[in-house]
Design goal:
Elements (H helix, E strand, L loop, with lengths): L2 H33 L5 H34 L1
């Protein structure tokens, strides 16, 4: 497998990770929005904490994908 193909494959995996993280964050935000009055406070705190952590993960995956795209451009 050539270096270009390897980088393209890595970008593909990063796209999958980005999509999954985004879907989970959207779900957590939906949970927070629909149950903030009835849920126990600890559940809301956990949901908010995981939302922040996963949002940070989205930023990291996004930066890695753009770095791979820049690396691909240099070849």
């Amino acid at each position: 497998m050539g270096k270009i193909d390897k980088i393209k494959e890595q970008i593909g995996w990063l796209k999958i990770a980005f999509g999954l993280l985004t879907a989970v964050v959207i779900s957590l935000v939906g949970y927070i929005a629909t149950s903030y009055e009835t849920a126990e406070p600890i559940m809301l705190i956990l949901a908010l904490t995981f939302t922040i952590m996963l949002s940070y993960g989205i930023i990291i995956v996004n930066k890695k994908a753009f770095n791979k795209m820049d690396e691909l451009e240099d070849l």
